[in-house]
Amino acid sequence: MKLRSVFIVFLFSITLIAQTPFEKGTYNLNGSLSFSSQSYEGGSDNLDILTFNPQVGYFVGENFSLGLSLSYVNISLANSESTTLGIGPSFRFYLHSERTIKPFFSLGYSYTESSNSSNKEKVIGTQFIITGGFDYFITSNVALETTISYMLNNEKFPNSYKYYYKSLTQKSKTFLIGFGVNYFIY
Predict the structure, then answer these.
(1) Does 11 fall in a domain?
(2) How confident is the model over 141-184, as pLDDT tens digits?
């Protein structure tokens, strides 16, 4: 009986060791948090920006995950404050490579709503996000993440903004370098 118990524990241990964080059935939680403050020479007010971008994913196949991304951006300057909330799907594909460093590509889409403290009407937007990066594993299931993203943004402003913009529909592009943490649950 003892021999059989030891054998079962041994087989279970081998199965756990053999599983990688990039196999079907693995979940991952990742995100980044940033804060910046910009002061103006001769001015008394700072431009403060707080950004939080959590994401949850599920590996539907080896090296391929589907996820849900959230975003929160708060910008304040003097007595004015703007908040943007976003949500959308994403998918990520990891390239085969050395276990310690794992490069990936990601595509995402986000629906956003922005509000300003001086104007209560919402600005509605969408983002198409292309990302490349890599995870650097510091333990078997925790990685430090570096990303480079390119975003195509579309925003639709309410009629009250017609005095500020020539067109109430604005398109822009964003280039973003990010750092975060990725946690794999398997």
Answers:
(1) no
(2) 999 999 999 999 999 988 888 877 788 999 999 988 889 999 99
Query: Which single residue is written with the structure tokens 């196999």?
Result: 23
- Which value, to the nearest 10 degrees, does the dihedral of the CA atoms of residues 58, 62, 63, 67 take? -20
Residue 160, domain member (yes or no): yes
| Structural domain harbouring 145 | 21-185
Cα within 13 Å of Cα(65), Cβ side: 26
Q: Considering its fold, how many domains does the chain have in total?
A: 1
Does residue 15 lie within any of the structural domains?
A: no
In this structure, is residue 147 part of a structural domain? Answer: yes
pTM equals: 0.81
The mean pLDDT value of the chain amounts to 87
CATH number of the domain within which 161 lies: 2.40.160.20
Chain position carrying tokens 């913009």: 165
Name 145's Cβ contacts closer than 8 Å, sequence gap at least 6.
30, 32, 133, 134, 135, 136, 178, 179, 180, 181, 182
